[in-house]
Write the structure tokens for this entry.
Amino acid sequence: MGFFDYFSIKRKLNLITMLTSSVALILACTVFLAYDRYTYKQSVHRELETLADVVAASTGSALASATPGDALATLKTQSNVLSAAVISPDGHILASYHRDDEEVSIPEPDLEQLFQLDDHSITLFHPVILDDEQIGVVFLEADLAKQQQRDNRFVAIVIVILCGSFIIVYGVASGVQRIISGPILQLTGVARRISHNRDYSVRAVKTTEDEVGILIDGFNDMLTDIQERDAALQQANDELEQRVEERTRDLIEANEQLRREVAERQRTEAILREREEQLRRAQKMEAIGRLAGGVAHDFNNQLAIIQGYMDLALDDVSKDFRIHQYLTQARKAIDKSTALIDQLLVFSSKQPMDKRPLEMNHHVIDLQKMMSRLLGEDIEVTLDLQEDLWGVKADPANIDQVISNLFVNARDAMPSGGVLSIKTRKVEIDEAFCLQWPEARKGNFIQLSIGDTGVGMTEDVRAQVFEPFFSTKGPGKGTGLGLSVVYGIVQAHDGLIRVESELNEGSTFSIYLPAVNILVDDDEPQPQRLPLDQLRGNGERVLLVEDEPDLMEMTRRALVGQGYKVEACGTIAEANTAFGHSESEGFDVILSDVVLPDGRGPDLVIGLVEKQPDLAAVLVTGYTDKRGDRARPREAGVELLKKPVPMAVLLEQLRDALERRPAAM
């Protein structure tokens, strides 16, 4: 009985009652099943005997007429008859029938037992008597498929009965055990509650007058004694605690107030330090932006001077001389310097957006080659670029900034080297994706993924990774603006960026940019500039307005050398004076800087065009912010060029402006 020692009285009563009832029900169902199988087989036997008598009666005359097959035709209506045959006295089969049209297999008859029974079928040999003489034997075979069906139904019924019986037995057993063990369990519950809560005011409820009732009375009397002693002890302890609390309450309150004041001051100081740091960084970045804009303007002016003289020198020197190659390389260095300034302006958010059709694969490959030295030899770069990628409409300089920032971020995440993977895909963002990423919108997108095998990020870091001034590189090692700039550029392109990262598993940044149905061919050769000698003027008068003396002199020389007559001025006042003195001859075109010491170039151009409607105009500027004043020239139909302007481009724009000007009245 060791198995039952760990069971409660309730479980023991339930288990014994249900086991006893279950065994009785199972034995009864087993006996009933055996009896049912026996009675069914006897009924099949009697049915075959009856059927055999009918067949034997009809077969006697059929044998006499040599047509015994007709007697078996009636068996087709008997679904349980599997096969039948009429056998002559010498053992030949005179006629046969099989329910499935198969060959009839007749076992050797047992003369002592003409009725045979197995698990699947019943066979019967019945003699055919005609005129008190046996003229043959009828063989019948019936299957017991219906018996199996009856057994299955019976088993299902037995299961249902057992389940129902278990429920009923369980209910009865529960009621019985509740009557027997209820008072004992109630007393046990009270004892446990008192032991756990130390509450001696609880009493057990007496429900019977038997031995258990007597036990409950004694238990309650014991609790009364314990409660009285405990109450006296508790009263003494309460009085002592009250005196202690009265002495220390004021001190606790004072300490708590002081703690709150210290915590509040520390929190305020931390917030103030954080705000001061953010303000310092913001002022630093604003100063960098202003400096970048101003320095870019001055650099553009100086580069324009160098570029102009370089173009003039290249035009004067034959390609056969080695110095032409040197000048060509220097000219390329000027173009790279211009590109560097554009990158500086992109970083300082001073560069306007210049969206154009872009093929991302070629762009990524070119930039990856340029960034290989920055990444270092210990970082392996893998490319997985999908062919036939859709085009995107984006600002190449801004896309360069995005990819460069992500490259640098991946490099810093792999101080000991690793793998930087770049992947492009065509994706269709559906509603399910939008539900997961609320910033997304449905449509066709280009996916650019840049992943690393670096240190990865925690969940807290990943949640703040795009916030301005947030950085994990430590003080002085980063501005915290790299990824926020990436986020802003992607947003400006109506795109989406998301990051996936696991600590010590690396990070992957995925950028989604809207796809456009524009065929992009990045392999298309750049248009060749026309030689300067094919862009010569025909004596047209040019009013040149430029406040940078060296740039003004270089431009004047270049235009004069190309067949133009040039009047150079450094201010708006000088330009108005020169325009007034030349009313007899007039000017054909005005070439003016946008920002001048005494005013704005667009104002000068618009004012002179109103006085002389057939005056052509071209504006140039070294500024890219609002001082560049790009909107007004565009509205007036005036071409605005960004310094430094290649000489060939300047001459082309002058010629186009002269050809577009209205005819003189």
Summary: The two ends are 126 Å apart (CA to CA). The chain has four domains: 2-163, 206-351, 360-516, 532-660. The mean pLDDT is 76. Residues 532-660 form a domain with the Rossmann fold fold (CATH 3.40.50.2300).
